[in-house]
Design goal:
heterodimer; A: about 170 residues; alpha+beta; Ubiquitin-like (UB roll); DNA polymerase, domain 1; 5-stranded mixed β-sheet; B: about 350 residues; Enolase-like, domain 1; 5-stranded antiparallel β-sheet; 4-stranded antiparallel β-sheet; 12 strands; about 25% helix
């Protein structure tokens, strides 16, 4: 590993609603800054090359791969990570549904799936199975398989819809 | 763990500023748009720009305008191409872009970036240690290789695909370029020295894995213009998985039909079989007659010589060659209106329109 000698990049980054001034090595990716400089290790470090989806976060509401985005490119933008999904102690319906449906096994891919699914349901609350499959096609899971994950997203969508119609 | 090397970061506020920064960089600067090609290449030490010129704040590159033609800024993300209902009329473009990589990548990757995508090869797209273990390759022949339009001399390094070859055989792996070439697109290149010049998209590429673009290192690709000329178009992609993979073969076709189904205009393009997308000159054989089974068979026979896949991407090269014939005939059958559900499995899968969210 090459260490960066100086932390001479400075940006203002809003992470999970909190704006922070950050000083870091300019060659770092958003993933590296989240995990190493902010201690937000919920976002996982997978392939580092855009081939697995484990590092997905929401950037201005859209799911992107934090391993491929230079942190410098995020100045003034909003980042949402898995740590921002729960509302204090109350889990997000997606998190509940993933637990209830057995949609996680080793759990390494789960944060990436959850934030990607959140972006999907924020935009399409009634997403069909086909849309769910398509939206999550950039997230790999090597142990659970995908059926429980798709079911959990459907379950969460149904719960969120029921809540809204009350 | 792989980290990108060190670089100086410059933020351009306009396309002209970006062009100036490239000129000032004297061949050591590269543009950063979505970063989904450049950042992995920087981590693997395939591309090591000393200066990275960010296009993030260049709003003019993110505009889409419809005015008797379609003009798409090079900085429009692939997800925004997929989302824009106005762009659906360009069937080949929509289908090509919707099948690039994954939704997560399409949310940052740009159309210009996909057009300029680095050529790919099993011996090149590997991490630094892997490449050092084989003593590198022709495209990036040493640890200091700064592959900005390839700085290496053609004499350096060994091509592991064809060891006696004087050239590099890395494969053009862009999905959008074959589609846009079939659609007759033109691209604008901007430099601080010469201003803007517009060329047909097919002229952007060289059939050489290292020097794969005619775009100079000081030029910024700013815009893609697609004519509204009444063509019907499609794009078929061969890949192992339904997402992620670069094309092992891409076939794009655009055809305009006149009365009684007579072809007035046709452009068929092969992708991922050479170091550039191949606009097939035999496309003109299709003009002036209907797309009968005979006409399609003659076209497939006449064009079979173009696909010469080498053993440097996924799948067996001989099989990729066979599939190129299936796809060349298949795209024409789809465009003449055959029911794609009656196609053989591989063709049916390639012809079935996916419905991406992003």
């Amino acid at each position: 590993m090459r260490r960066s000698p100086t932390n001479n990049a400075r940006i203002a980054l809003t992470v999970n609603g909190e704006t922070k001034e950050l000083l870091f090595a300019p060659n770092k990716t958003l993933l590296e800054v989240l995990r190493e400089d902010l201690g937000l290790t919920g976002t996982k470090h997978g392939c580092e090359l855009g081939e697995c989806g484990a590092c997905a976060v929401l950037l201005n509401g859209r799911p992107v791969l934090s391993c491929l985005v230079l942190a410098l490119e995020c100045d003034g933008r909003q980042v949402e990570t898995i740590e921002g999904l729960a509302d204090d102690a109350r889990l997000h319906p997606l998190q509940e549904a993933f637990a209830d449906c057995g949609a996680a096994q080793c759990g390494y891919c789960t944060p990436g799936f959850l934030v990607t699914a959140k972006a999907l349901l924020d935009e399409r609350p009634n997403a069909t199975r086909g849309e769910i499959t398509e939206a999550l096609s950039g997230n790999l899971c090597r142990c659970t398989g995908y059926i429980q994950i798709f079911e959990a997203v459907e379950e969460a969508a149904a719960k969120m819809g029921a809540k809204e119609s009350k | 763990m792989m980290r990108a090397g060190r670089f100086r970061y410059v933020v351009a506020k306009s396309a002209a500023e970006a062009a100036q920064a490239l000129a000032d960089g004297g061949g050591k600067a590269m543009l950063l748009a979505g970063g989904t090609d450049l950042v992995p290449n920087m981590k693997r030490r395939q591309q090591m720009p000393e200066i990275v010129v960010s296009l993030r704040q260049v709003a003019e590159l993110r505009e889409v305008a419809m005015n008797g033609e379609t003009a798409i800024g090079a900085g429009v993300t692939l997800a925004d191409v997929v989302r824009d209902p106005r762009l659906r009329q360009h069937g080949a473009l929509f289908r090509a872009v919707a099948q690039v990589a994954t939704p997560l990548i399409r949310n940052t990757a740009t159309l210009g970036g996909n057009l300029c995508l680095d050529t790919r090869c099993n011996y090149y797209d590997q991490n630094y240690e892997w490449r050092r273990a084989i003593d590198f390759c022709k495209k990036a022949p040493g640890p200091e290789a700064v592959a900005i339009d390839a700085v290496a001399d053609d004499g350096d390094g060994t091509c592991w695909v064809a060891p006696s070859s004087a050239r590099c055989w890395a494969v053009s792996s862009t999905d959008s370029a074959p589609a846009l070439i079939a659609l007759g697109a033109r691209v604008t290149l901007l430099s601080s020295r010469d201003g803007a010049r517009e060329i047909p998209l097919e002229a952007l590429f060289h059939d050489d894995g290292m020097h794969y673009m005619t775009k100079r290192a000081d030029e910024v690709l700013t815009r893609v213009r697609v004519p509204h000329d009444g063509v019907r178009s499609t794009y078929w992609k061969l890949r192992r998985r339904g997402a992620f993979d670069f094309p092992a073969l891409g076939v794009a076709a655009a055809v305009r039909f006149g009365t009684a189904g007579v072809v007035e205009h046709a452009r068929v393009v092969l992708g991922a079989v050479a170091s550039k997308p191949l606009l097939l000159p035999e496309s003109s054989l299709l003009v002036g007659r209907a797309l009968t089974d005979d006409a399609i068979a003659e076209f497939v026979d006449a064009t079979a010589r173009w696909a010469k896949p080498l053993d440097n991407t996924d799948f067996l090269m001989t099989w990729r060659k066979q599939v190129s014939k299936l796809f060349l005939g298949g795209v024409l059958r789809e465009l003449r209106g055959d029911d794609v559900q009656t196609f053989p499995l591989l063709a049916r899968r390639a012809a079935t329109l996916r419905n991406p969210v992003w």
